[in-house]
Amino acid sequence: MNTDRTPDPADDLNLLREWREPIPPSRIALAVAGAILYHLVALSVVITAINAPLPTRVPEFVVDLRKAVPLYVPQDLTQRDPNRGKITHDLDVRSAAPPAPIPQAPRFRAPIPAPAAAPSIPAPIEPPKIEAQATPPPPIASPGILPPIAPPPPEKPKAKKATVLKYKARKAREAARPRPETEQKLAS
Length: 188
Prior knowledge:
This protein is mostly helical. It is built from four helices and no strands. It is extended, with a radius of gyration of 55 Å. 0% of the residues are buried.
């Protein structure tokens, strides 16, 4: 047996591998056509700009020295006097700013007592009267005997107010609507 292996060309070290698929010819043709179209449009814009007529009226720039603003030397200088003190190489920001006022808590003022009013006796409030039906508590259920179930309370008859209102509204509409028999009597 021969243990020597010949290196396969596919296993060979290839540091210049393609990082994407090959470009199809249709894509190249599209890119060439787009570049040619772009350059034709750019060239036509340049030619149009060159052949454009020059502006007929060029604004004239005239300097009027009578309207010039004269300069004066100020009477009081805004620059501070030169530093005559000892120069230090340390920077102290607190020395440049004026001292800040120390905040103080507001002073306590005793409240002014209100004049004493004559005490008035309020009228006693009566507790509300509650009328409850005296029903005996239900018997306690035992494992073998269940308590009897009470019948549901009788339902109250519902008011027929909505029905009455609908009836009255319908009668009012009928009274407002002209009847064909009445129109025939009026016509003859």
